[in-house]
Amino acid sequence: MMPHSNRIPLFVETIKSIKETIITNIVLTGQVPAPTFEEAQRADMLLERFSTAGIECAADGMGNPVGIIKGKDPDKPPLFVVAHLDTVANRDVDHNYTVKKNTIIGPGIMDNSVGIGVLASLPDILRALDLFFASDIVLAGVVRSIGKGNLEGIRFLLDHWRTPIRGAVCIEGHKLGRISYFSEGLKRCEIECSVTPGAGLKHKSPPNAILVLNEVINQILELRLPQRPLTRVVIGRIRGGTKHGTAALEARLSLEIQSDHADMVTAVCNDIQDIVAGLAHEYHVHLRMKNISEQLPSRLRFSHPLVKATVEVMKRLKLEPVALPSESELSAFLSRNIPAVTLGITYGEEAFAPELSKIRIEPMFRGIAQIVGVMLAIDDGVCDEPALD
Q1: Structural domains of the chain, with CATH
Q2: 10 pLDDT exceeds 90?
Q3: Could you give the residue ranges of the DSSP H alpha helices within 59-146?
Q4: What's the pTM value of the predicted model, to 2 decimals?
Q5: 351, pLDDT greater than 90
Q6: Which residue numbers delimit the Peptidase M28 domain (predicted)?
Q7: DSSP 361-372
């Protein structure tokens, strides 16, 4: 049993007592647009919140805002708490947030503005809980995370950090009860099709770029993908054309290859490249596939003390742990043999219209309590003997 396990459920009411501070930080940081590669203004806002909370803070060479809560033992390596700054919401979307009795509504709130707001609030939360740590606590809002960002922010931060790192907690807005201690191998790709008017041997009129990509999808669906190691191709988005009555001359397909084994990701990627090359020749169109981002599979064993401690914390808070793979900063830590987990803060809904996305306020306090509980477990030494697969 962890030394602090009996106290953890009591944290919830104390955290709730500074509800206004937490919501203020979520709104102030979340209302600043932060599409990938354009996070500078939100980074400045997070630094301002760190400064207001009275902790040392600065941005690194990549623009990651970093705050440090000093620990009592300078000989102990630091523990990291990280959340990604960027969101999928474009800058031209209305970023005004609406706070209701039990919800906050606005673009990027689930992924990952609530995570950044909680990160900004941690100095005040730990102060309210009267908690002190042996290790320094490094609070990092990382840039260039999602999509084409390809985790560049966290990779830069870890590559340039000069001391060992004791362990890490990665925080995501959604969903409370998730525990991620492994990441799949994946490769995100885009396939672009451009048609030159008058092209095409098989058609009296130019090929339709969307229909060409449809044939790409058909042939991908015919690939024989193994169940062991589990391998998938997820078709995420297709865009193209200009109006209803005109055949599309340009179109783009976004997909993701996922597998428990890195070699399988590479093999499927090669198969899809062959499909693309064959159809480009057959239809006489410009068809190319480019890689957007990728990560290698990595994991902690379920028997690792950090995983066991995290499950204990969650059960103390009457949460039912659900193991899910993570595409977040987790893989950057695990690939460097740094024990880490990803946790969700609350429940919510991601809407197709970004401005309608929302999170629930009340569950958030248990979500924050679990983060603090896992931080205490790391400070008590559960990561001091790494046991990575």
Answers
A1: 7-183+297-380 (3.40.630.10), 185-295 (3.30.70.360)
A2: yes
A3: 114-128
A4: 0.89
A5: no
A6: 66-128
A7: STTHHHHHHHHH
